[in-house]
Amino acid sequence: MLNVNNVVAGYLAGSRVLDGFSLQIAAGEVVALLGRNGMGKTTFLKALMGHVGVTEGSVNFAGEEVAGRKPYEMARRGVAYVPQGREIFSDFTVEENLLMGVLGRPDLPQKVPDWAYEIFPILQERRKQRGGSMSGGQQQQLAIVRALVSQPKLLLLDEPSEGIQPNIVQDIGRVLGQIAKEQGLTILLVEQNMELVLGMAQRCLFMENGAIAYETDQVQQLRTDPAPIHRYLSV
């Protein structure tokens, strides 16, 4: 589904936050992208969505070269992005926030589907409440469902557990894992919470200096042999 080869990208002219970055993700896979702060994880998600320019290399999504596409073009092609910090519309109600996710896909019915409120039932209870007045965990749930109502082929998640109480993190992991399994949703997860990673991911990619330095599909072995975690995540 996603093939990225030797990508170079950065925020300033000539900068190489991503420096020869390559990965492949198959349809239906749940993949975790891990690494210390500053290694380029968020930059890759932004480059894939079109928020950061790609200066070298190729990005192929669903058989189409998409490097240089605008964010709205990526959304229409079936890529949804839940950014770090959630970035919901604080003054909009829950329902209005969810409608924003639908508006990114003009080929879909322009209303919030009923099933959206079944993913995290608290959103049904808070349907008319302003997003900014909800807890951080509820805002994260809102941001995730806002992405899901666009019915993506690929869901990008940047630090979904950040600043959220553990029981909501567990709920998010359970729900996303279930959706991935039942609907075949492809997920790329950037995350520091290893319990969430180990509970969701089928494959882990570790970044260093703007590129993939190590990967494994033996995810559960990281519980008993955490050497890669210490090598690539410890400060």
Automatic annotation (TrEMBL):
UniProt entry tagged with the keyword NADP: no
Any one Gene Ontology BP term: L-amino acid transport
Domain of life, source organism: Bacteria
Record key words, sorted: Amino-acid transport, ATP-binding, Cell membrane, Membrane, Nucleotide-binding, Transport
PROSITE patterns recorded: ABC_TRANSPORTER_2
Domain ABC transporter intervals: 2-234
Pfam families, per the entry: ABC_tran
InterPro entries per record: AAA+_ATPase, ABC_transporter-like_ATP-bd, BCAA_Transport_ATP-bd_LivF, P-loop_NTPase
Single GO MF annotation: branched-chain amino acid transmembrane transporter activity
Family classification: Belongs to the ABC transporter superfamily.
Full protein name: Amino acid/amide ABC transporter ATP-binding protein 2 (HAAT family)
